[in-house]
């Protein structure tokens, strides 16, 4: 459990809870109510509610916790109607019992859709009425987006009892429910404290503008919004950004931006769009860049990428069959003269290889005539199995990164079969151990 710093302000009085009748050795129960509520807020809701059986004094304490994290473990393919019914009933029960006047966070994670729209809408009303600071709804499931819950239009008016309830929101996360361009614009205009905005899986977003010098937004994450064609971002306060490559992606006036994740589909047009988008001024200040690529570099022509003069960490998630030319991805490494760490995640799905495995130990010849980062010390290869193209990438990095001192091989991701991972570890040790220069440490996870 992560450590958090809490400052809890409550309007409820200790006298509302039962009187304190505690045993002499029960030092926890002797703490003030505010402290106990703060401790309970660190527990899952079910565990927090179970403390009500400890004594009469604990019966109501959990009901005043400022954080409600209503999360249930699930596998989307296995969720049945009865499980949905039980989850919805549980959430409703928690909401009816809750007494705190305000909420620091309200999180609901489960496979739900438009069939549960009446209950979900009531949960939103509950959260807004408690002036929630962090609101997260994650309804992930393997069904068509047309079945997603649609954010109600009735919330887009500032009239009525909820008119001033949005001003406390700092974090807003909607995953796998449908929100529109107008919905997002509404929250940007009416949530002056909003710092994080996360939207995953909405099919109702098409042309989005997130612009404004008065916005406090620091983190923006737009993922799997497949109908989005255009995105314009101009927010001076933003520090991290996660976006797809689109027909029109315009990023400007982002002087604080230092971390970026970009999701690219498998065509060379998007590589040009990526270069164009990052050349708009933000690229010169990036310190962390994460890329999700298909066979994006599937052209025979050499790819040229704009310089990343301040980049310290590069992470590439590369999807393929397992036989692709991986050295092409080093175009991003060569563009980063002060890179310190390169993480390559090979997400292959076909164990069969046209050229087979490299079964013997490999040698590392003299380096190529190429300019590489002067500070590149760590190379981590995830999804390693030991095929020729993987060996070529390792050789290429080792030969050309003169100050490299650590090579980390992690076979996790090489399929879900434990035998595959076991063979990958064996291949890595057989191919690499004893063959690296003395100054490079080999770590096989």
Instruction: Give Rg in angstroms.
Output: 26 Å
**Binned strand content:** 15-25%
Overall 3D shape: globular
Continuous helix count: 9
Question: What is the chains' assembly state?
Answer: single chain
Order of helices and strands: HHEHEHEEHEEEEEEEHEEHEEHEHE
Low-confidence stretches: 1-24, 358-366
What is the overall pLDDT average?
Answer: 79
Helix content: 10-25%
Sheet with the most strands: spatial strand order:
1-2-3-4-5-7-9-11-12-13-14-15-16-17
Question: End-to-end distance, in Å?
Answer: 24 Å
Structural class: alpha/beta
List how many beta strands DSSP finds.
17
Largest sheet: 14 strands, parallel
Features:
alpha/beta; globular; 445 residues
Concise overview:
The protein is α/β, with parallel strands linked by helices and about 450 residues long. Helices cover about 20% and strands about 20% of the residues.
Sequence-ordered SSE layout with sheet pairings:
Blueprint: H1 33-40, H2 45-50, E1 67-71, H3 81-97, E2 105-109, H4 117-129, E3 134-138, E4 171-175, H5 181-190, E5 196-200, E6 207-211, E7 219-223, E8 230-234, E9 240-244, E10 248-251, E11 259-263, H6 268-278, E12 288-293, E13 313-320, H7 331-334, E14 341-348, E15 378-382, H8 388-400, E16 406-410, H9 418-432, E17 441-444
Parallel strand pairs: 1-2, 2-3, 3-4, 4-5, 5-7, 6-8, 7-9, 8-10, 9-11, 11-12, 12-13, 13-14, 14-15, 15-16, 16-17
């Amino acid at each position: 459990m992560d450590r958090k710093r809490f400052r809890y302000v409550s309007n409820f009085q200790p006298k509302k809870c039962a009187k304190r009748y505690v045993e002499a050795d029960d030092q926890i129960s002797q703490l003030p109510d505010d402290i106990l509520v703060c401790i309970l807020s660190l527990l899952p809701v079910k565990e927090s509610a179970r403390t009500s059986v400890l004594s009469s004094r604990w019966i109501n304490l959990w009901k005043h916790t400022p954080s409600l994290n209503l999360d249930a473990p699930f596998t989307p393919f296995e969720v049945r109607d009865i499980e949905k019914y039980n989850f919805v009933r549980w959430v409703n029960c928690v909401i009816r019992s809750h007494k705190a006047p305000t909420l620091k966070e309200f999180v609901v994670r489960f496979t739900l859709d438009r069939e549960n729209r009446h209950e979900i809408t009531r949960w939103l009303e509950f959260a807004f009425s408690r002036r929630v600071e962090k609101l997260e709804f994650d309804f992930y499931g393997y069904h068509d987006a047309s079945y997603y819950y649609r954010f109600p239009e009735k919330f887009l008016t500032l009239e009525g009892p909820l008119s001033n309830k949005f001003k406390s929101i700092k974090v807003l996360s909607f995953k796998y429910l449908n929100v529109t361009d107008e919905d997002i614009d509404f929250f940007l205009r009416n949530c002056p404290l909003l710092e994080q905005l996360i939207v995953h899986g909405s099919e109702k977003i098409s042309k989005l503008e997130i612009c404004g010098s008065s916005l406090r937004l620091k983190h923006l994450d737009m993922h799997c919004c497949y109908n989005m064609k255009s995105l314009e971002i101009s927010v001076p306060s933003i520090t991290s950004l996660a976006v797809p490559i689109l027909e029109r992606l315009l990023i400007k006036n982002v002087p604080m931006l230092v971390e970026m994740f970009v999701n690219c589909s498998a065509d060379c047009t998007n590589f040009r769009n990526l270069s164009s988008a990052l050349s708009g001024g933000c690229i010169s200040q990036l310190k962390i860049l994460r890329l999700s690529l298909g066979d994006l570099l599937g052209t025979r022509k050499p790819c040229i990428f704009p310089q990343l003069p301040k980049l310290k960490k590069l992470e590439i998630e590369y999807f393929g069959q397992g036989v692709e030319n991986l050295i092409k991805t080093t175009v991003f490494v060569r563009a980063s003269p002060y890179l310190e760490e390169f993480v390559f995640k090979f997400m292959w799905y076909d164990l069969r290889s046209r050229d087979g495995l490299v079964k013997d130990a490999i040698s590392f010849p003299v380096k190529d005539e190429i300019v590489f980062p002067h500070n590149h010390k760590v190379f981590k290869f995830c999804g390693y199995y030991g095929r020729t193209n993987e060996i070529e990438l390792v050789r290429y990095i080792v030969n050309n990164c003169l100050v490299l001192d650590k090579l980390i091989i992690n076979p996790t991701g090489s399929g879900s079969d434990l035998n595959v991972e076991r063979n990958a570890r064996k291949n890595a040790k057989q191919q690499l151990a004893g063959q690296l220069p003395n100054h490079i440490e080999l770590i096989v996870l």
